[in-house]
Design a protein that fits this description.
The structure is a single chain. The protein is an alpha/beta fold. Helices cover 26% and strands 30% of the residues. It contains 15 helices and 26 strands. The strands form six sheets. Strands 18, 19, 20, 21, 22 and 23 form a six-stranded parallel β-sheet that branches. Strands 6, 7, 10, 13 and 14 form a five-stranded antiparallel β-sheet that branches. The longest helix is centred in the C-terminal third of the chain and has 20 residues. The two termini are 41 Å apart.
Length: 564
């Protein structure tokens, strides 16, 4: 989900230690150390195996280090330049700890001008001493590490020597039980005189990790700088539009289910949509013809009430959209765009007025049939088993013309072959198959023949590849690789511009291994990249291809139509 733009956080070490004004300088081979930490921009998790490439054109070197399992990296390099031979403090100084706030460790640096006993202690807000360390030290600059001890909150550290003391405040972000001070260590890291021009090296740092968007920064470093970097996954940087989600069907059976908080059952809720990077979700209204028997339109109104109930409950997270531009505006406000659609022409009960009313409620695609045929269109299931034959009736053609005039996308998943042919002869718009597979890969009547895929591509439409194992593999189990096999087939047949994603989550009783719910979409993106698809290809598959259809069919400003 590409809601937030700022992705880089700099943390540069700083301080103001006072140094004696006498300093010996000469040209020498100077050393410097830089370090950093890399995390995931969305989850905050530490990122290992990030390549950090350091380049200095001025000093003609290029080197690479890799982050460890904690996301940390460090590099020590050398360059020709001015180097301090020696610089000792002439006053007692204490630097602000860095980083601050911190979790779980922070560095405290100080300098003493005369040898003697030194005490460093940490206190909480109540003045209770948490830890203390005493040691006799020579003149010089020193560093001690503090690891979280006690609950999160504000703490104070005080350093005393020769009758003088300095106290500073630090903020501990998380609690700890076994922390405290490290050993006090002598350090050569110090600030140079304000009047002296520091030696530095200009670095370009490039951060690369597979399936992540790379980042580059330029910085002049002396010694000891630390960089905090957050990398965004390629998945999160792209717009993901899922064409088919049936959570409203589940909610008709269980009206107590809400989209927050996160659940351990069903496939969909807002926390998992966010974690899955879903930007635009098509929420399907499907009325089971075996349950509602001739009261389909009222059933749709009940589902609509549930849809609006959830939008009203969680307006800070999700909002209804009717066009692509509305959806992107909603995304830019850090929210998920929810688009309503209807599955099964039986829902309109042979009434154009009902069709117009659903449009006014925000319906932006209509699946012409479900498994059951209507009076005006034949389903793929009925056609396959020989229970019905034929295509669109005259009223069916009127429905298609009305959908075109309203700006509603025509969806032909579940629809019979002859009916699809009649639709293609009637409509002036591109059509979609919102949740289908390739029949050449898995021979199921719900999947599309190559000729149908080609016909959809010829009019600029898309096929949303479904995640239902029976359609993906022909059995109760399937893998992400088998989902990609359907994508591969469509790409090889008509090109990468005509494939999309239509998961069918919460409309399926079994799921693909690795795609168990809406939070797992990033794993599909990772697998596509690993399979050899480029970032540009994946961007098309996840959303750009359907955007073309969405803008062309529904791009006009939404208007309320008057029923006849």
């Amino acid at each position: 989900m590409n809601f937030i733009n700022s992705r880089r956080i700099f943390g540069l070490g700083s301080g103001a230690a006072i140094l004696c004004p006498l300093m010996v300088l000469n040209l020498n081979l100077a050393a410097f150390t830089v370090s950093g930490h890399v995390r995931d921009f969305v989850t905050g998790e530490n990122l290992s195996q990030v390549d950090v490439i350091l380049i200095s054109n001025e000093h003609t070197f290029r080197d690479t280090v890799t982050t460890n399992y904690q996301g940390d990296w460090e590099y020590t390099g050398q360059y020709m330049g001015l180097r301090e031979q020696q610089a000792l403090p002439c006053e007692f100084t204490v630097r602000q700890n860095f980083p601050n706030p911190f979790n779980p460790t922070t560095s405290i640096e100080f300098g003493i001008a005369t040898p003697g006993p030194v005490e460093i202690a940490v206190f909480n807000l109540l003045g209770q001493q948490i830890d203390v360390k005493k040691q006799r030290l020579d003149r010089g600059n020193y560093q001690v590490m503090w690891k979280s001890s006690g609950p999160a909150g504000v703490y104070f550290y005080t350093i005393r020597t020769k009758g003088k003391s300095i106290t500073r405040k630090m903020i501990q972000l998380d609690g700890g039980q076994s922390g405290g001070f490290s050993e006090i260590a002598y350090t050569s890291r110090h600030s140079v005189l304000p009047l002296a021009k520091p030696t530095s090296v200009s670095l370009t740092l490039i951060f690369n990790k597979f399936a992540y968007v790379g980042d580059t920064l330029k910085a002049d470093v002396n010694d000891g700088e630390h960089f905090e970097i957050a990398l965004e996954t390629i998945h999160n940087s792209l717009t993901l539009i899922d064409l088919h989600n049936d959570i409203l069907e589940q909610m008709l059976n269980d009206p107590t289910y809400h989209w927050m908080p996160e659940h351990s059952y069903h496939h969909t809720d807002i926390p998992r949509l966010i974690r899955g990077g879903v930007d635009v979700q098509f929420f399907v209204i499907w009325i089971n013809p075996n349950t509602y028997t001739d009261d389909y339109y009222q059933g749709a109104q009940a589902a609509l009430n549930l849809f609006h109930r959830e939008l009203d409950l969680y307006p800070n997270y999700i909002q209804q959209a009717r066009t692509f531009n509305e959806a992107i505006d909603i995304n830019n406000g850090d929210k998920i765009a929810a688009v309503m659609c209807v599955e099964g022409g039986h829902t309109i009960e042979n009434s154009v007025d009902n069709l117009i009313s659903l449009y006014n409620e925000g319906m932006r695609y209509l699946t012409i049939t479900w498994n059951n045929s209507t009076d005006w269109a034949v389903s793929a299931k009925d056609e396959y088993y020989g229970w019905r034959s034929g295509g669109l009736s005259d009223f069916g053609r009127e429905v298609i013309h009305t959908l075109d005039s309203l700006g509603v996308i025509i969806d032909v998943s579940h629809t019979g072959i002859e009916t699809i042919n009649d639709i293609l002869e009637t409509t002036v718009n591109p059509i979609i198959a919102s949740h289908s597979g390739a029949r050449a890969v898995t021979d199921h009547y719900r999947n599309l023949y190559d000729s149908q895929i080609e016909a959809i591509a010829d009019v600029g439409g898309v096929v949303g590849v479904v995640f239902y194992p029976y359609y993906v593999s022909g059995s109760r189990s399937a893998s992400i690789g088998q989902v990609i096999a359907h994508i591969d087939h469509i790409v090889n047949l008509v090109g990468v511009d005509y494939v999309a994603i239509g998961s069918d989550f919460d409309g399926i009783e079994v799921t693909v291994t690795g795609l168990e719910d809406v939070s797992k979409f990033p794993d599909l993106t990772y697998a596509l990249l690993e399979h050899g698809y480029t970032k540009e290809d994946v961007a098309k598959i996840l959303g750009q291809n359907f955007r073309r259809v969405f803008e062309q069919v529904c791009g006009k400003q939404p208007a309320r139509m008057v029923c006849r």
